[in-house]
Design goal:
Layout (H helix, E strand, L loop, with lengths): L6 H17 L10 H21 L5 H33 L6 E4 L4 E6 H4 L9 H16 L3 E8 L6 H21 L7 E5 L12 H7 L1 E8 L2
Parallel strand pairs: 3-4
Antiparallel strand pairs: 1-2, 2-5, 3-5
Helix pairs in contact: 1-2, 1-3, 2-3, 3-5, 5-6
């Protein structure tokens, strides 16, 4: 009989088995939700790998199976919670310029810097602070997460200046969240400058997309 000999192979086996379950609707009442399914798949793969690694060579199969089951439950729970938090956040925000992306294991709230700040400024515009307070209220309703506030710029100007500006803008957004009641223990700020564009810096439209602050919501497992 052929045996799976590596933890990685066991993890992949767990993922494929779970994928079959999602296709037949066997993950529970929320199995029709693709993000919940995706969270379950992520959890199953991670759980299978960790379970295999935690066991000796003779028990890796059992460890991978137990880990996949536990990981599925945790991942599906995270996926469901993110779905709900995303829906609530969309209801709370009334600004079409703010985008929310649900990856299945995190929410990324992206705010264009052009609506947050005046040119070369890192003071949040007063009219945008209401949107950030709405985000802060949502974060307090869902307290089991870590928050990353990440500033980005386009490539115009000096790279060192852009790095500093992105850091200050991330800190300014984080300050609004903290002043609105979000625990400082949950919040981390980062500046990426011009190093992580999401569009071309060769035209005005692309540059506008690259100038942004992202609020990344990472559920605690």
């Amino acid at each position: 009989m052929t045996r799976l000999k590596t933890p990685a192979a066991l993890a992949f086996a767990g993922i494929f088995a779970l994928a079959a379950c999602t296709e037949t609707g066997q993950i529970g009442a929320n199995s029709n939700n693709p993000k919940t399914q995706q969270g379950a798949l992520i959890g199953a793969g991670a759980g299978a790998l960790l379970g295999a690694l935690s066991k000796g060579d003779g028990n890796r199969g059992d460890g991978a199976l137990v880990g996949a089951v536990i990981g599925t439950a945790i991942g599906a729970g995270i996926g469901y919670s993110l779905d709900k938090q995303e829906a609530d956040l969309r209801n709370d925000l009334g600004n079409d310029d703010v985008t929310i992306v649900n990856t299945g294991d995190r929410l990324i709230v992206s705010l264009p810097q052009d609506i947050l700040f005046a040119t070369d400024s890192f003071a949040v515009r007063p009219d945008l602070q209401n949107d950030l307070r709405a985000v802060a209220g949502n974060l307090q309703e869902y307290p089991q997460s870590t928050i990353q506030v990440i500033g980005h710029t386009d490539s115009d100007g000096d790279a060192a200046y852009n790095q500093q500006l992105s850091e200050r803008r991330a800190s300014a957004v984080a300050s609004v969240l903290l002043n609105a009641g979000v625990s400082p223990q949950r919040v981390r700020t980062f500046g990426r400058g011009e190093t992580q564009p999401v569009a071309s810096n060769l035209n005005a439209t692309g540059k506008a997309q690259n100038r942004r602050v992202e609020i990344v919501i990472l559920p605690n497992a």
